[in-house]
Write a structure and sequence with these properties.
This protein has 4 domains: 222 residues, Galactose-binding domain-like (Jelly Rolls, Sandwich); 68 residues, Carboxypeptidase-like, regulatory domain (Immunoglobulin-like, Sandwich), CATH 2.60.40.1120; 294 residues, TIM Barrel (Alpha-Beta Barrel), CATH 3.20.20; 178 residues, no CATH class. The protein contains 16 helices and 44 strands. The strands form 9 sheets. It has an 8-stranded parallel barrel, surrounded by 5 helices. Strands 1, 3, 4, 7, 10 and 13 form a 6-stranded antiparallel beta sheet that branches. α8 packs parallel to α10. The chain is globular and about 105 Å long. The chain starts with 21 loop residues before the first helix and ends with a helix. The structure holds calcium ion. The site of calcium ion has 10 residues, from loops.
Length: 852
């Protein structure tokens, strides 16, 4: 749906951002000033002055000319999705430096899988790291019922794959017009393209999106401009609507109290006694106490793929800094249900790597109880609660079972406030069941509930409906016997949801009453002001480390090259440490770290105090030395170092996790739910527009024209599908007549499955064609490079199987699925009938074969 065509009138204030001619700009300014001199200060100016931030406006006037990135005309905006939830139209505005605004009247709260999405496409190229500034005015005309503010979400992101974004911000709007300044470095990377195209997007390839599922509410947006300054200015010199929080000042009282608490609760007394081999004290020995690891968990979300590719220098840095900065890791998405169903070998390998390198690993997440966050294959279970119940139970048993005994903890239930479809369908009690199933599957892992916006709420408030829900839900779980061990607080903060430390502490106090451990599980923020980032990281860390119930702080990525909105807390994309990274290092590895060299007293003892964790304690005297690797727990420790002896920590040998694969019963249930797997073979004449007349197909097969193609193309595309089993080869026949001479494409694939559903893998062997010439239909000729000869199109994932026991005849066959197909050209003659006979069989997904 296109919006009504309406152009926005020129901005009478002459906002200079888009003006290409600075003399013209000065002239306009002067003219305007003159006008102002005669006319009394108008309502317009007053309103504008109130809406604008003078400091940012001053920066704006100093900027060179930039290149406009989007049209200023609201007719260029298009409702892409969820139009039925909203009325979107231009309205006239009085008393502001613009005459028109876009009114977004969300008449009903959109359903979660049908966000309202309004977008406009870029009209100029954007390079990676270009300095971009978006400005706009906005206000709430009517906030949602019972709320003081309305929410408005703006994203600047790819309009084509890979879809990822440079910036994604949510704004809280009140009734007053306010001007917002959003500056950022463009994040434009498309791995599928070769350099330099990889770091460049053309006009039409980026977009501004207003994407929201808030409401019912009415908001108005006006005078939206996006300007690309390329490399002419530093992003830090662009205007920016920043934020602050209470308690940021250097001498804040809360911080003094928190640091004093840290001294008390995170440290313990350490006594080192140096003795000789006869057990006699050695006076005046030199003692070196060196902390090697925090007891407190400092962790990050990890992208499993980064742990392996050895030739990528970024990946090397990623691994190096992961191990240097953290003692805990969590896969950001790979063990959620949908990705896990697609690829289980990847996460097993990644978690093995983390364990082998000494990281504690948390699991995320067993149940995210919404249709939208899970494989579409589950959606038909909307009408079959028993089937859904079983699918969830199977998943918990499966994924938690694979990692049994190896993970520190699991998020059992994630974001159940907003994602509550399954709870509504199955009943509240089902939550308790999920925890019990998790305990059964892995009795060793500590079990967490995980929720967002508890220490990062809109406006930083601590009595939102979500807080009330969260406290009630935890109490419900406890009252109903759920084996709940921990409370996970995500901590995705932002410039409009930056909670002040005193409020964070109040929330932690309230949660501490449940007597469970508390962990910050997904800390990050979408603010780009580096000074603010640094202060916030410092204060957030101090607040949570000072609370006795908190056991860990996990951030959601640490490097801009691997972060949702390129605002990772530690490193910039070029691996330089940000001020916030410096703040982290200062606290975690300096102020909260311990290294001391001192002399033992006359009785051979050294009394000191250190942060809880692991230590190497060395002593030397008279040319002899000794070493003890020991833990300092909260009750303190007395460590005896014997000169001439080394007592190293016993580390059990690393035993990698081996995935036993999905239980047969679960596989069978899934197959039953999805129907029998089907083979699919395409005959495509679309390139040369060769119409194909279908004659017949074998009995169990279904053959048809491609109804999804437009017009005449339909007639030039045939496909045949037939149900398969894994036990025996199925023979399928397809007969057709080409109506023109030409070259077709014969494509071997599996059944079409939606994104997120499990692909259908198929073996093919012994294909014969009458009426045209086929190459290597039995796949016995090896074409090199892991491919069969004669099949030039070979999609990633398709497999050349050289295994006599798997082939139908000879030594080889192929294994393909819908996305990983192979193909060859087939030359045909007009009116010469073609008969294709092929043999196929259901195959197991890749990766599972190896474990069998
Ligand atoms: Ca063969």
């Amino acid at each position: 749906m296109n919006l009504p065509k309406t152009s926005i009138l020129p901005d009478p204030l002459g906002n200079p951002m888009n003006r290409r001619d600075s003399r013209n700009r000065k002239f306009r300014r002067r003219l305007w000033m003159a006008a102002m001199a005669v006319v009394a200060l108008s309502a317009t100016l007053q309103a504008a002055l109130k809406a604008e931030d003078p400091e940012q406006e001053a920066k704006l006037t100093k900027l060179p000319q930039g290149v406009p990135l989007v049209s200023s005309d609201f007719s260029a905006y298009e409702v892409k999705q969820g139009g039925k939830w909203a009325k979107v139209q231009p309205v006239t505005v009085e008393g502001m430096p613009f005459r028109q605004a876009l009114r977004i009247d969300t008449t009903a709260a959109p359903k979660e899988d049908a966000n309202l999405r309004i977008q406009t496409l870029s009209i100029a190229p954007v390079k990676h790291q270009d300095a971009v500034l978006i400005t706009f005015y906005a206000r709430a005309v009517a906030p949602p019922k019972g709320e003081k503010t309305a929410e408005f979400n703006l994203t600047f992101c790819w309009a084509v794959p890979p879809w990822s974004g440079s910036v994604n911000r949510t704004f809280s709007l009140n009734g007053q017009w306010r001007k917002y300044y959003v500056s950022f470095p463009a994040v434009v990377k498309d791995k599928s393209k070769p350099k330099p195209a990889r770091f460049l997007s053309q006009a039409g390839e980026q977009r501004i999106v207003f994407d929201q599922n808030f409401g019912p509410q009415i908001v108005e947006i006006a005078d939206l401009k996006a300007v690309n300054y390329g490399e002419t200015v530093k992003v830090s010199d662009l205007p920016l609507t920043s934020a602050t929080y209470e308690g940021r000042e250097p001498d804040a009282a809360w911080r003094k109290a928190a640091l004093a608490r840290i001294e008390k609760i995170r440290k313990a007394d350490l006594v080192v006694k140096v003795v000789d081999e006869a057990g006699q004290p050695v006076p005046d020995a030199e003692v070196q106490v060196k902390m090697t690891r925090h007891a407190f968990a400092f962790g990050t979300a990890v992208a499993g793929g980064r742990l392996f590719d050895g030739n990528n220098p970024d990946n090397e840095k990623y691994r190096e800094n992961l191990l240097k900065m953290f003692n805990r890791g969590v896969l950001g998405s790979e063990t959620k249900m949908a990705p896990w169903r697609k690829d289980r070998a990847g996460p097993v390998r990644a978690i093995n790597w983390m364990l082998e390198h000494g990281l504690g690993v948390r699991g995320h997440t067993l149940v995210w109880p919404s249709w939208r966050k899970n494989p579409p294959a589950l959606k038909p279970m909307k009408d079959d609660p028993a089937a859904l119940r079983k699918a969830i139970a199977d998943h918990i048993a499966d994924v938690a079972g694979v990692f049994k005994g190896c993970l520190v903890e699991w998020d059992v239930m994630n974001e159940s406030y907003a994602s509550d479809d399954w709870i509504k369908l199955l009943g509240e009690k089902e939550m308790v069941q999920w925890f019990k199933l998790a305990r059964q599957a892995d009795p060793h892992a500590r079990l967490f509930i995980n929720e967002n916006r508890i220490v990062s709420s809109i406006g930083g408030g601590i009595d939102t409906p979500k807080h009330e829900y969260f406290y009630k839900t935890i109490q419900y779980l406890i009252d109903n016997g759920a084996p709940l061990d921990g409370i996970g607080l995500q901590g995705h903060s932002g410039w409009h949801r930056m909670m002040c430390p005193e409020n964070i502490l109040k929330v932690l106090d309230r949660l501490a009453a449940f007597r469970k451990e508390i962990e910050i599980t997904e800390f990050d923020y979408d603010v780009s002001d580096e000074k603010l980032q640094a202060d916030f990281v410092r204060d957030f860390l101090i607040a949570v480390f000072s609370h006795p119930s908190v056991t860990g702080f996990v951030m959601w990525g640490f490097w801009d090259g691997q972060h949702d909105v390129s605002n990772a807390p530690l490193f910039r994309e070029d691996w330089t440490l940000k001020p916030s990274g410096q703040a982290y290092v200062d606290l975690v590895f300096r102020q909260w770290w311990m290294e001391e060299t001192a002399k033992a007293d006359a009785t051979g003892a050294l009394r000191t105090r250190g942060f809880l964790g692991q230590y190497d304690i060395a002593a030397s005297a008279g040319g002899k030395s000794g070493l003890v690797q020991a833990d300092l727990g909260k009750d303190g420790a007395t460590i005896v170092v014997t000169l001439g002896r080394q007592q190293r920590r016993e580390v059990p040998p690393f035993v990698p996790i081996v995935d036993p694969g999905l239980p047969e019963s679960v596989k069978a249930a899934r197959v039953a739910a999805a129907g029998p797997p089907q083979v699919r073979l395409d005959v495509i004449g679309v390139d040369e527009m060769v119409p194909l007349k279908l004659l017949s197909a074998s009995k169990d097969a279904k053959a048809a024209q491609a109804t999804w193609l437009p017009g005449e193309k339909k007639e030039c595309f045939l496909f045949v599908e037939a149900p398969l089993t894994a036990d025996a080869w199925t023979e399928t026949t397809l007969k057709f007549t080409p109506l023109k001479d030409g070259t077709l494409t014969l494509k071997l694939k599996g059944e079409f499955r939606k994104k997120g559903e499990e692909p259908v893998w198929v073996y093919y062997d012994d294909i014969t064609v009458e009426g045209a010439e086929l190459q290597n239909g039995n796949f016995e000729q090896d074409g090199g490079k892991g491919r069969a000869a004669g099949w030039p199109q070979w999609k990633k994932g398709a497999e050349y199987v050289k295994n006599k026991s798997l082939a139908r005849t000879g030594n080889a066959c192929v294994k393909v699925c819908h996305e990983s197909a192979i193909a060859q050209p087939l030359r045909v003659k007009a009116q010469q009938p073609v008969t294709i006979v092929f043999h196929s069989k259901a195959a197991e997904p890749p990766g599972e074969q190896a474990t069998e």
